[in-house]
Amino acid sequence: MGLPENSQLHFSEWNHNSNFIACGGALGTLKVVKIGMDVRDPKPNASALIVNQSLEGHNATVLNATWNENNQKLTTSDTSGLIIVWGLFNDQWAEEMINNRNKSVVVGICWNVDGTKIAIAYADGNVIVGTLEGNRIWNKELEIQLASCEWAPDGDMLIFGTADGKVTVYDDTGSHYLDIQMQCLESEDLEQALAKKENQKEEIICMKYWSPTLKSKALMELQEKEEKEQEKEKVLTGTAVFTNFSTRPTPKDHIEPEKNPEPYQPVPADRPRFMVAYARGVMQLMRSLSDTEPVVVRLKNLKITGAKWSPNGAFIAISGHDLNTEDPRHSSVHFISAYGQVVGFFQHFETRITGICWEASGLRMAIAADGNLFIGHVRPEFKWGAIEDTIVYAYQKEEQYQYGIMFYDYKIDEKTIKTVSYFENLASFKEHCIIINRQDDAGTIQALQNGGVYRANLSDGVITSRYAVTAPIDSMKLNCDFTRLAVVKLVEQVPFNITIYEFVGDELQQIYNCEKKDVWDYQWDANDSHMLAFKDKHKMLICDCSSVLEQSAVYGNIFSFQNLVVTSVNIEKLLITPESPTKAVIQESMIKAKQDVLSLLNAMKLDEAIDYAEKNPHAELWNMIAQYSVFKHQFDRAEHAFVKLEDYAGVQLVKRIRNIPSNELRNAEIFAFREQFEDAKDIFLHSDRKDLAIEMYEKVGDHRAVYELVKNDPDEERKKEAFKEMAEFHYENMDWEEAAKFFALCEDIKMQIDSLIRGNCFGELEVLARALPDESDYMVTMGDAFTTRGMCDQAVECYLKKKLPDRALHCCMELNQWQKAQFIADANHMENVEGLLGKYAEETTGASDEKSVATLGLYMRAGRHLDAAKIAFDIANDRREKMMPIDDLKQCYVLGALLVEEHRQSIRELKRIDKYNMVENTLDDESGLTAEQTRILENTWKGAEAFHYMMLAQKHLLTNRIEDALQTCVILSDYEEYLDPAEIYKMIGGDMKKIENKDFLLALAAANVGQFGICSRAMMRLEVLDTLDEAEREEMKDLSFELFSQYV
């Protein structure tokens, strides 16, 4: 950067809007630079300084700098107390304002979030708060030594860090408001306590409240201006009515500039935002200024020199050096999450790190170290994977502990999001994906057979509490709010005692004991933490932790206790016929209190039922009274019951019903409250208030009922709305065909198409494509869908209706429909498809059989049978040189011959349909064929015949049909072009030794049938073969001598 010799940088600050980096330090050094490296292109040596400006004005060491992001100002201060505000004019940074108090060092400069107010803190306790224009708002001398300052996000509160490590808050008038408890200083581990020096002050290195960076007003105005200029540059073109030619020269295609969307930055409610970092490696992270349970981070053996929030507030970068070494050049940068978990680490041994800052994307950092400014790439370990053509990745959502899992199928551009709570990690392999999420339970309760109950963490298994409970323990269960524990103990190996305990602090206190009960089963109430149902053999008992009430008999296992009803299942009866379960095995038993109140209400003794509930209060009893009172129009008593239930909505319901003048409509509202919607609907319709019936069903989300009510209405808007609700209902339930039907009724073509695609209803999609107008914007979407499913004709039809022949052509090429591609290209005067096919064939043709076979298939699909035959014969020749099995070679030659016959058949078909002999001469003319193609036409089946006869000759020899073998071998002499005499084809057992070639076959067959003339000519051919060496030639002569000496 051209820094002065021996200059040292003390800080670096990155502007998140305009990408400038400010850095400065000793000797009044202050630089503003800008680099041109693309954050998505992490290549070495890819950076270049676009801006490198030295700012003159400071003579002492520059210590602080801060950006006003909203108004694009830079504020700096030095050790002499000089403060300068810099502004950008004509692409150059220049002084705007200067302030020099000359009494103390500036320890903190900060702008509020919207950049309208600035706070300046001096070490001697003086604080100045001013405006953007330089006007002073207030000035105060605080009777404390300051170390740092920071604005709260609301822009009204100022947070100060003192020289002795305390943190205090002042309001917008400079009055003391709050002292923040620094729990990180109140407790410390043994190692840090021993490392701490006597009378050592707690030095605050950084104090920062994270808030998202606002977009700069100036940059937004400039962007709007550029967009308007680009709009003006666009030239509209028109087409004359009676011609197919443009009325003016076609302008160059306008390329829309790529717009970077706003990054997705959710901020969970539980994530810390306020950070205080101390020099001795201790940090406190708080969710708010009043957070009583902050996150404490302790970094061992690290002296912190700087800390910065990442732009999205999810991470913190911490710079420092090792306390165990005296050399401060042993520097490092630690990365922790906002929750205090260490996620990364970087070491640097060559220079001393003095300043760090993040780039706006969070993927780059600038590090000031001695006289250098390093730009580093941050490589986060993202949670992601791939399932075939689908990319899977996780991201945090706005809701607390909620994560989105995106499944993005890039082939068909389909996105599916699943929401997961407490996400931890994911892994993928082939077509499967595993998602790991943490459950709500933080711990577990465990009991030992010989006594004792223990509470342990689920995360690490560490035992956190021990409770003395005597043995032997048979089982135990927690109540609904985890405050009480029911324990069944064994007496002579029989569960004969149930004891209820309550968690009080770190102790487990016994609150009730029920002895001499043969406990067969038990269950806590799902809503009431005080009630427990258990069975003494078949007799059911209800315990309220102070007494036991006997109930009716229950013949089964209890699986639910809720709303004063015990539900049990008779497992013994169920397993008698396990494959045919019936409802008869389920038993519901009301406890006595509910039975009594129900009897009183049935006898219309409402006041007595209320008195009973007052003496035996329970939410279910008051709910029964409220329901009955509303039904009987006893609104005063109903309101009293709702008050007991603390049900504000119920109280409001009573008030609303009271104000309804019509008795019929009042009854309808009561039926709706009791969820008797059909009765309520009948009353509404009888009262000619269909609108109220529709409103009722809309409230409860019964869209089908709404549809039935409005389907014959003349109000089209109401019908469309009902159709849309029905469509969305079916869409959410993945009933794609029904969703498509209702989307069609509400004329939502986009969602209709989406439903048809998801439901694989491509027949209906094809009908829809033909029904839509040619210029419909949905033609491309449907064409793409047809393309991905391999439906070439339908895709081409969609593209051509939209007047997109380019896409139609590429669709045909992608699906290997080359004949259709040629037709489209000819009709629209487009590029040469033959050339594209040839180029594609060259790319797929290679040394391997797989590539050659792929090219052969390409030519077959393109209707180029002669070219495909040539590839088949080339494959056969290649395999013959590699001495592949004879039957494989024969199959290759047969395939090539069949393809030639296909070519001839296509010629005959063209001649047959050419009634006027317009192309007959062209079809008969073979002057355009290459020599290779002419040879293929002349020798179509010869290769197949050669290997067929070769296999036949070997078969005859092996089956001892010698004369047949001789005749076949004589025929083979006409196929020397395909059968190399020196090749080894077969091994024959016994005294025949080796069959090395067709001549040896011929000689052998002739010798075996006594045709020694033929045998002699064959042996002479073998002796003069160039492929035989001297030893083999001598061996052949010896064999001839022995053969003819013995038999002739």
Automatic annotation (TrEMBL):
Its main location: other. It holds the Pfam family TPR_WDR35. Residues 938-1047 form the IFT121-like TPR repeats domain. GO terms for biological process: intraciliary retrograde transport; non-motile cilium assembly; protein localization to cilium. Residues 246-267 are annotated as: Disordered. Residues 180-235 form a coiled coil. InterPro entries: Beta-prop_IFT121_2nd (IPR056158), Beta-prop_IFT121_TULP_N (IPR056159), Ift122/121 (IPR039857), TPR-like_helical_dom_sf (IPR011990), TPR_IFT121 (IPR057979), TPR_IFT80_172_dom (IPR056157), TPR_WDR35 (IPR057361), WD40/YVTN_repeat-like_dom_sf (IPR015943). Residues 384-442, 445-586 form the IFT121 second beta-propeller domain. Residues 3-212 form the IFT121/TULP4 N-terminal domain. Residues 621-705 form the IFT80/172/WDR35 TPR domain. Transmembrane segments: none annotated. Residues 250-261 have a biased composition (Basic and acidic residues). Keywords: Cell projection, Cilium, Coiled coil, Cytoplasm, Repeat, WD repeat. The keyword Transferase does not apply. PROSITE patterns: WD_REPEATS_2. PANTHER family: LD29485P (PTHR12764:SF5), WD REPEAT DOMAIN-RELATED (PTHR12764). This is WD_REPEATS_REGION domain-containing protein. GO terms for cellular component: cytoplasm; intraciliary transport particle A; non-motile cilium. It comes from the Eukaryota. It comes from Caenorhabditis tropicalis. WD repeats lie at residues 55-88.
